[in-house]
Structure formats: C-alpha cells, structure tokens
Write a structure and sequence with these properties.
By secondary structure, this protein is mainly α. Helices cover 70% and strands 0% of the residues. The chain starts with 12 loop residues before the first helix and ends in a 15-residue tail after the last helix.
C-alpha cells in the first residue's frame, strides 16, 4: 500500500518473536488454565491446549506466508479485501478493531483489580486511569518504544514460566514440598478425562482465548525492518516455545494440583487473586508466591493492554487507508504514528471503561459482543490464505517464488478452518442443552455482529467473491 510508506519500519526480529510469544502468554495461562483442568481433567485440558496449539501453528504459517509476500499494517482486513471479497475485509477489519478496543478497556479494569491486591483502599479508577495514560504514552512515542516495552514485559513472563517449570518438576519428584506427587493426580477418580466431549469442547474455547494474540505478528509485519527474514524466524521460534510453555506448564499444574481442588475452580479471569501458578509455588514452600505472581499478572495485563492499543490503532489506520473508515485516521506524524487512530481507539477504550464503572450492563453487553471476535479473525486468516495460494497458482506462479511458504497446504488452513468453526459453535454448547436463550444470545453475539457488518457492505457496494484469476497479487 502506498500509504504504508508513512509508517516507520522499526520492529526488529527479537521484537516480533517476543510480541507473538508475549501476546499469547497472559492471564489465559497464569489464571484460566486452572479452571480448564478443573472442568475437563488433566487429560482433557492437555488435549484441548495441544489441539489449539497445532491449529495456531497452522494459522501462524498461513499468516506468515501472506505477511512475507505483502507486509502491511492491519493485515487481516487487507488480505480479506484483496484475496476474498471487499465486504469480508470491511467486516474483518472492524471486527478485529472492536475486539482490541474493548479488550483494552477490560485490561485497564483488570489492572486496577491486580493493584488492589496491594492497595485495597485506593479507588480502582485511579489505577485504571494511570494504566491508560502509560499505555497511550508508550504507543504515542514511537514504534520502537512499543516494541521495546513489549519485549521486556514478555521476558518477565517467559522467565516466570521457566522458573515455574523448574520448581514444578522439583515438586513433582518431591525435591521441593516434601511429597512426591508423581502422576497420581492423572488417575484419581474420573481423571484424566472428566465430563466427556462437551467439557473438552468447552476447554477448547478457554485454550483458544489463551492463544489469542499470536496473530499480532501479522499486524506488526508492516513495521518490521526485514519482514521476509524476521517473520519466518519468529514463527518457527514461537511455535516451539508456546508448545513447551503451555503444554508443559499445564502438565505440571495437573500433576501437582488435583482437578478436584476447590482452588482451581476459582481460577477464572474474574478472580485474579487465585492463580494455579501461585498454588504450585505455595505447594513448593515459597511463602511470597502470591505477591510475586500478582506482580507477574500485572505485567501480563499491561502487556495485553499495550498490544491491544497497538493492534487496534494499526487496524483503524489500515481501515482508513482502504476507505473503510474516515480519512482522518490515515494520517501519521513524523515518527510514523497514526495519532488520530490512536486517539480514536483510546477514546473508545475510555468510554468502555467508564461503562464498566457507571453502567455495568452496557459493559457486559460490549464484552460479550467482543467474545468470539478473535476466533472470527482466525477464521478470516485461514480463508484468506487458502484463497491467496489458489490465486497465486491460478495466475501461473510457482510456490518456489514465495520467500516463505506454509507447509502442508491445503491441510493447514482447512484444519484451522474446521477447528475455528467447531470452537465458535461450541462456545457455550451447554446453553443449547438447557435452551437458555439469554445465555445463547450473549455468548454468540459476535456472530450476528460480523454478519451485519458483512451484509451491510455487500448490499451497499454490491461486492462479489473475487475470481481467482482477478485477485490482486501486486506488492503495493
């Protein structure tokens, strides 16, 4: 895109690796993994996280192929527009922007909850306001300041997971904690699989939310110094790290804490005071574990807010470049920052936060509406990649021309497509069993929202699915 020249390519390979890795290691691992084990048992949780991990790998390789060929900021909307249908690009872009703008508000609200662990008498809105100002300043300074901040916040999370794994293994063998648990918790009562397929499917959703953020590598591609080298390298590194951190970490938690533990039931995103990591550290005899993990969870929340601000700002800028949003959001300053888009995103994040303070029902509505948007974005990546590769071959190109090609095509995008649909439909399968229409409408609100956006653009501009031979493969 011609306007992309206004963006500064300041993100290095180490930034991209850590952004993709750090974007996926957060409260989903540190907090929600406990509830996953309590619901589906150790085997069910491991199966769900491994399945989603494989799907994410295929999505990353699909995104990597497109991002090295056409590195643009706000990639999902651009790829959907050029390789599928402009109506899909419109819906995909606004869907993803909405997701991160709402998530930004959730994160600054969560930051207040975390801080009140230490300072319970200070009003939460003060911490949220300070967090928002800090995140805004980081993103307003430069692309490099965002990358460096995310790099160091991610390192804190990665080091914590490594220390946790070491302590966990020592505890399993009885070197710490005084009692060797071995694998006894994997065979107790109904373990390793609890609740059958419905419970495993529900944990697929939890695992999916935990992995969301890995796709940020596609958003950052437009501001990478050497996307053709840094993106493939980042994808290879991130896959193995995520698999190691997530699968091994859940194995350690499940081996030490039985799935029947009432403490694991409290391990949900709404209760950040109980982390399965904290439970394991306490089991090993580390008394200050709660305070340490609370500090780590705070860095995770701030990292997520930082990434959310960056992603939503770039997506709004990209939407304006394609004519899907007001022209004023196209402008960048001398440092390559789209300030109008940054202010716009901050304003929506602030409004949503205020809704959480003064109108909880509005807040819950917005939060529910953004619930499945990450999965819809993944669905868009899989469809766009399938169409891109088919168009590439239909127009006489060979796969060997690509600087980076996704392996196992078309198995990868098709498998990712199927799993994404399965997770989206299985979001709240229990509500269908009890015919709880209110719960169904809240859980699946993202789907009609996407359909409305898609249908509006399709009817207004009479767009059609682009024939493979007419797909625009030019690198501009």
């Amino acid at each position: 895109m011609a306007e992309q020249e206004g963006m500064h390519r300041e993100l290095k390979t180490r930034h991209l690796s850590m952004i993709a890795l750090g974007g996926s290691i957060g409260t989903g691992l540190f907090v929600a993994s406990g509830s996953a084990i309590s619901k589906a048992g150790p085997g069910g949780a491991l199966l769900a996280y491994a399945g989603i991990g494989i799907m994410v790998y295929f999505l990353m390789t699909s995104l990597g192929e497109m991002a090295t060929y056409l590195p643009v900021s706000g990639s999902f909307a651009v790829y959907s527009t050029r390789f599928v249908d402009p109506a899909m690009g419109f819906a995909m872009g606004w869907n993803y922007w909405f997701n991160w703008a709402i998530t930004l508000a959730v994160d600054i609200s969560t930051a207040a909850l975390v801080m009140q662990f230490w300072l319970p008498d200070v009003p939460g809105w003060i911490f949220s306001t300070v967090s928002l100002v800090i995140i805004f300043a980081i993103n307003a300074l430069s692309v490099k300041s965002f990358g460096e901040t995310e790099y160091w916040l991610s390192i804190i999370k990665v080091v914590t997971v490594i220390v946790f794994l070491v302590v966990g293994v020592l505890t399993i063998f009885g070197i710490l904690g005084g009692h060797a648990t071995g694998l006894e918790n994997f065979t107790m009562k109904k373990a390793p699989f609890v609740g059958g397929v419905p419970m495993i499917l529900s944990v697929f959703v939890v695992a999916g939310f935990s992995f969301q953020g890995t796709e940020l590598i596609g958003i950052t591609a437009g501001e990478s110094e050497t996307p053709e080298k840094s993106i493939p390298k980042a994808i290879k590194q991130v896959f193995w790290r995520i698999l190691l951190f997530y699968i091994f970490a859940i194995f350690v938690i499940a081996a030490i804490i039985p799935y029947t533990s009432p403490d694991l039931l409290g391990s949900s995103a709404s209760d950040i005071s109980i982390s399965p990591f904290t439970l394991v550290f306490q089991r090993a005899g580390l008394a200050s574990a709660a305070s340490i993990m609370n500090a780590v969870i705070l860095t995770s929340v701030l990292s997520a807010a930082n990434s959310g601000m960056y992603a939503s700002t770039r997506m709004l800028h990209s939407l304006a470049e394609q004519g899907y949003a007001p022209k004023k959001f196209r402008k960048t300053n001398k440092r390559g920052i789209p300030m109008a888009a940054l202010w716009g995103t901050t304003f929506i994040g602030l409004l949503t936060f205020l809704a959480s303070v003064f109108g909880s029902r509005v807040y819950v509505f917005l939060l529910s509406a953004s619930g499945l948007t990450g999965f819809i974005a993944w669905l868009g990546i899989a469809i766009s990649h399938y169409r891109f590769r088919k168009a590439f071959e239909a127009q006489g190109h060979k796969v060997s021309e690509l600087k980076y090609s996704a392996k196992w095509f078309p198995v990868g995008p098709i498998l990712a497509l199927i799993l994404c649909i399965l997770v989206i439909l299985g979001q709240d399968i229990q509500s269908f069993q009890h015919f709880d229409w209110e719960a169904i409408s809240v859980s699946y609100m993202s789907i009609p929202l996407f359909i409305v956006l898609y249908t509006y653009y399709k009817i207004r501009y009479k767009t059609k699915l682009i024939p493979l031979k007419d797909v625009d493969l030019s690198k501009k």
